[in-house]
Structure formats: C-alpha cells, structure tokens
Amino acid sequence: MRVPVSWLADHVEGDLPADADEIGEAFVRVGLEIEDVHRAEEITGPLVVGRVLEITELTEFKKPIRYCRVDVGDEHNDPAGDDPAGGTGGGSRGIVCGARNFVVGDLVVVALPGSVLPGGFAIAARKTYGHVSDGMIASARELGIGSDHAGILVLPEGTAVPGDDARPVLGIDDPVIELNVTPDRGYCFSVRGLARELAASLGRDFTDPAARVAVPAEAAESWPVRLDDAEGCPRFVARRVTGVDPNAPSPWWLRRRLLAAGMRPISLTVDVTNYVMIELGQPLHAYDASRLQGPIVVRRARAGEKLRTLDDAERALDPDDLLITDDSGPIGLAGVMGGASTEIPETHEPGATIDVLIEAAHFDPATIARGARRHKLPSEASRRFERAVDAQLPPVAAERAAQLLVEHGGGTIVAGRTDVGAAPVPAPVRMALDLPDRTAGVAYARGATVQRLTQIGATVELETGPDGKGVVVATPPSWRPDLTMAADLVEEVLRLEGLDVIPSVLPSAPAGRGLTAAQRRRRAVSRALAEAGYVEVLPFPFVGDAVWDAFGLAADDVRRRTVTVVNPLDAERGSLATTLLPGLLDAVVRNRSRGLDDVALFHVGQVVLPHAQPVAMPEPGVRVRPSAAEYAQIDAALPAQPQHVAVVVDGEREPRERWGPGREAGWADAVEAARLVGRVAGVELRVTKGELAPFHPGRTAVLRVGDFPVGHAGELHPKVVEALGLPPRTCAMELDLDLVPLTDPRPVPKVSPYPPVAVDVALVTPDDVPVADVADALEEGGGELLEEVRLFDVYSGAQVGEGRRSLAFSLRFRADDRTLTSEEANAARDAAVALAGSRTGAELRG
C-alpha cells in the first residue's frame, strides 16, 4: 500500500512531522511494517509546463516518430524557433517524441536542456531523426512520480499555463510511504485506516473521510438487485448516475494521488472508483447501465458457465465462484474483476453521455480469496475483500463516487438507492479492565485502556464485575471484524501504548538439554545426502487429485485420502500431501525447464495421513484450560504427521569426463540413497522386490527394517514419467523415518582380534528368486560366525541354463575368541548353503 503524506495530512489534525522517516517510525510504533519511504526524485534544471502547438508525423522511419512544436512560455521559448529541417518557429521549441497519446493543444511536462531527470538522465539539445530536439516531453516514470511509461504525462486543461514551474504542479516534493499491510490489518488498505493509525500514534485527532460524506435517505431502488447467496454477499448497494461525460478528464489532484499510490489514471469513471477505494477502502465497480439486461442477481456459478473478464480472458467458472449476473448471464466475478459485456468503453463520440451504475458490495473474504486464487487473478479489489472490508461502507463509498462523477463529469444522481441485505452486527467483547496491565506487566496510566479502545473506533462501556473489579464492554467498530475476544482488545491496548515500553526479560534456559535423538537423526540424514551430491529443496506441500491420477493410484489407495485445506494457496492443489514425491517431481520438472538436465534432489519433511475414521475436532473455549478429555480428543482428531525422507535423481549421476563416458542414474542409485539413510540412522536396511505405484513394477525395491517395510525405491513407471513431463528413467526413493527405530548414535564397536576366513560360493537359482531372499538365507544359515554376506557377481548364460542365473557371494567368517579353522568355516558355509537351498532352491554351481 503506497500513500502520499499529503493525503494522510488531510485526515490528521495538526502538522505532520516534516521528516517522512518520522512518519514511518510512527507507523512502526503501532505495529505496521514499512517497506520504503519514497522521497522526491532529485530533478535539477528547468522543468516546465508546455502546450503542444503543432505535430508533424515523421513517416520515413521504422517506428512512429513525431516532431512537435511546444510553447514553454516566453521565458523559455526560442525566439528564433529555427530548425534546420524546417518548422513553424515563432517562439516555441521543437522536440522529437515517440509517444502518441497526446494531441495538439495538450498540456505536457517539458524537461529543457540543462535539466537532469531521476537516475542521472541529463537532457541536452541534440539532432535526431533529422531534427533538433530542444528538450524532452516526459512521462510519469521518467519524472519519478509513477510507473506508467506507456505514454507521456498529459496534464488536464486549467492545471497550469505554459512556462509554469512543473514541480509544484506535479507534487514532486510530496514523499510517499509504502507499507506492507498484513492480512489481519485489512482496514489499513486505505488512507482512512492508515490516517487513523497515524493519528493514534502521534496523539492527534483523526478526521474520518467517511463521516464527511452525507448519505441521504432514499426510499426508492436505483436498480433491482437480488441476493441468491447471502452468505457470499451479505450486502449489495447500487447508486445510479446519468448523463456523465465519458470524455471529461479526471482532475489533476485526483490523477496525481493515483499516480503516487502506484495506479495508472485511465478515465474519469475508473479513476473515481479507484480513488474512493484507496481513500475509504471499499472497492467499487462501475457498470454501463445501458448494457445491463434485467435485474442484478448475486449467485454461485452453474456448471458450464463462462465469463469474459475485463482483461479480455474467457474463464471457465467453478461452482464455488461467486458471480454478479443479469438476464444475459455472468457479468462479473464478484469482488475480483468485472465482465467485459458491461464495461464502460474507453472511447466515445464527442458530446456523448453515459449512464453509470455504481456497485458497492460486501463479500465473504474466504469466497473472494478462493476465487482470486482459482483464476490466478489477484486484483486491488480482491486484496481488500479477502482481508475483510468495513460492512458499513458500501452506501458511503457509492455516494462519494457518485458525487465525484457529478462534480467532474457533469452527471446527475438518479433518485433512489438500492441497499439489499444487511451488514453483520459486531458482538460486544468483555474484558477485565486491568487485563492489559497484567498481560504486559506494566501499570498503565488511569484511563489508558478506555482511551486506546476508543481510538480504534470501539464503543466502550464500563461495568463492575461480580468480584467488584472493573470490566470493559467494548463493541468493535465495523471495520475491525478481527476483534472477537478479550485477547484482541489487549493486543490493541498494548500496541497503541507502545510495545517498546513492555519490559523484556529472557527466561533462563534449562541446562543439559540439546537436540532430541530424532532431531539429531534428521540433521545427520540431511548432511549425509548433501555430502553424497543431493541438493535439498523445499517443495510445495500441497497436492491435487490430478497427481494421484498421474501416479496411477487405485481409487481405494490410502494416499488419496487427504486433508483438504479450507483456504488453499492454489485452488488446483488444495490438499495436504500424503507423500513427498509430488513436490519433488514438480521441482525436477521446474529445474529441467530451466536447463538443468542432471538433477539429484532430496527433502526431509512431514506428510499428513488422516485417519480412516475421522474424529471430530473439539472447539474448547479460551477462558479456561481445556480438560484432559478435550486434550485427548484433540490428539485423537489430529492426523498422523510422520517424517519422511525422499530423493529424486535423473540424468548423469557420474558426468562424462576425459577418463570415462560417465554413467546415467538408475534405480540402484535410489536404493543406495536409501541404504545411506539407513546407515546414518544406525540400521541396515533390507532390500527386497516389490510393487507400488508410481514405481515401475519390475524395478521397485521394498525397504525393510527386519521384516517391516519402511519405504520404497526404484524407477518410476514410464506412464507416470510421461504424464508428469519427467525425463525418461527418473528414479526416486521415499521412506518413513519415524518407522526407523532410534538407535544409540555412538555404539561401542565390537572388534575381534582374530583374523577372518573368507569363503566364496556360487549358487544357481531360478531367475525369479530375489537375491535378497538368497542372501537372507545364507546369513541365517551361517550362524554367529558369519560376519558379512556380499554379492559380487551375477551370471546368466548357457552354462547355467535358460531361466537360471548364478549368484556369487563372498562369505566372511570370524570368531570373537579364537582363530577359526578351515573345518569350522567350511561347516558354517555348508550350513548356510543348505539353508539357502532348502528355502530358495539354490544349488552350488559345479
């Protein structure tokens, strides 16, 4: 939110501090965040108002260029007016300009030779396009008073005369304060709200701009309106103005304030609605009443409906969208953007007039927020509606806009005002009079609580409680729907009294406590994966149903059972993730789109797994501590949130270099990442064959601790790769860290002083026998003497027969108390081979 200091000064009694930084500090004292203080851009040299006398189109160049004769006043005009390429001369200056948004007779701002514009842009007379350009006609951005650079700045007639100093006309010396308005302070998205906060901070009286607007009583309707969804739109006000001159220019004071606020002036009707929105905080919309068909109806969208919005985009509507409609169908996305069918055209024939219907409505914040995010259509209106707007403002804002149109557009307000629905009535809040003092640990001055609550606009009454102590009964103002309990009132008193006066005492930290075992394990896992070449990312934690379809999950797959977010950031992904893979795979696609072909990413984070049978979440009050039963029900209602670790890898795992051709990433890399996580966690993961979407059924490994599965790794299914736009042979791994038992991170190693005996065996098995099963049988059959089983070779061919393969294992035996004899090692080997043969059908290779 950008606001010029002069606009704030209109509503705060007394002179404001001369230094804009002091004003910024005053806002900070009452809890607002200052983004920047924009002071006047330094402009040196002559900057004057000029009038365009003549325009010559230079058509011999590739782009449109104009040569203009501009009257800049007797003091600055060139008496000779000579131009080597010709021109009228006669006491004017010739200026070359590429803009086309002005005509002969317009007032413009001219930077004469010798002036320096913001950014060190020096102006000098120079020959260009065959003419001498004796100065520059400037745009708002070049002057540092706005961001519009689509054309030069045209001043309204009567603003000044040629030769006048342009600085006071432009208001260049008026600093602009930019604030970051947090979601809980929606009323500060207006000059009205900010001036109120500034007055409270400076201890000044506040003049409410809404109180200056006289709203006459009107019995008749301005336009028929029906609310079919009173929850989404509790109140709708319409005011009609006829005979408005659409070609009338906006007054310069209004345009200047819009420019300072970061908005581009467009036309009188648009500028008036924008000005009132910034001044009061109530978004407005103006309809061309001649294009409306029948009564206005506010309702939800129906299946198959579409709307072409003012940005000329046709949008498919969702049943949750709140619409403004007439007999022709949707004419606006409520609280977000109007429709093109009832737009007031920008150009009109000279002498034409228009019939304007002004809409000032109150909408449900959550509905507007969902609609704006669903259509990816943030607007100045939606930013205010989704933070809650004063429900009493609609008739005031509509009247203010109508009066401005009459004053500057020559219109006539039609008798009658439509006001359907009702504004919600704020509920009184009770609070102990001394609660702010007890909360802050500060003895505030007598009457401070009542004074501060009155400053925010609350109606305050004092009562005596049952204990004989004072009680404040405060009815919040209509623009503060966030004040619903005593704690909210305490916060208001504390911030207005000054958070800096509250003593700060650091609690003493208990000694001897550090990270928990689970926290140490999480850090160790992250560090180990990073050292192995994986890059940690923080993916988007929300998913939509489309990803489960792309994964090929069955309809009854438990991963489809998700927790839906009430107010999602992205309407297409409105549920909490039950797996880390969707976010990681999105990161892969995004990195590949930016030219990064070899990707190895990991993430350690929580997933949310709702219960199969949901438990109702209780709503305990805030006056007393929840009971043990309520705590138990809260714990039972919360979904499980285990910590997972996942990796995704594709492309070259080992890059091509002069010493070799490199190696593409494969399923074995994903399995090795899981083994690495297991080793860091202090367990040895068993890897067995498995199947689980979205992995390739023939290249999927189940990760186990003992016999219990804790995760999966492998190559993604080709259909999944194609559906998500991933590179071929993308591999991934995900395991549940919470299912991995915590072990002592510093076990005492057991080292035998006696030498090992290594024995190699080659076993022939059918192709479909998992290697892990054979290894498990060898390990169990080898008994206590077997220290390690390692597969070092796999052979399939004619020597072992079709459908069979040879697995070569190295078995290492060792005893703790003696040197093994060959007979002991061979006996242990034979026992291991025998058990493997009985379980898996393995035979010693001859």
From TrEMBL:
Pfam families: B3_4, B5, FDX-ACB, tRNA_bind, tRNA_synthFbeta. Mg(2+) binds at residues 482, 488, 491-492. Residues 41-167 form the TRNA-binding domain. CDD domains: PheRS_beta_core (cd00769), tRNA_bind_bactPheRS (cd02796). The keyword ATP-binding applies. Residues 424-504 form the B5 domain. Its main location: cytoplasm. Its EC number is 6.1.1.20. It catalyses: tRNA(Phe) + L-phenylalanine + ATP = L-phenylalanyl-tRNA(Phe) + AMP + diphosphate + H(+). The keyword Transit peptide does not apply. InterPro entries: aa-tRNA-synth_II/BPL/LPL, B3/B4_tRNA-bd, DNA-bd_dom_put_sf, Fdx_antiC-bd, Fdx_antiC-bd_sf, NA-bd_OB-fold, Phe-tRNA-ligase_IIc_bsu, Phe-tRNA-ligase_IIc_bsu_bact. Binds 2 magnesium ions per tetramer. Residues 752-845 form the FDX-ACB domain. Its cofactor is Mg(2+). GO terms for molecular function: phenylalanine-tRNA ligase activity. Belongs to the phenylalanyl-tRNA synthetase beta subunit family. Type 1 subfamily. This is Phenylalanine--tRNA ligase beta subunit. It comes from Pseudonocardia benzenivorans.
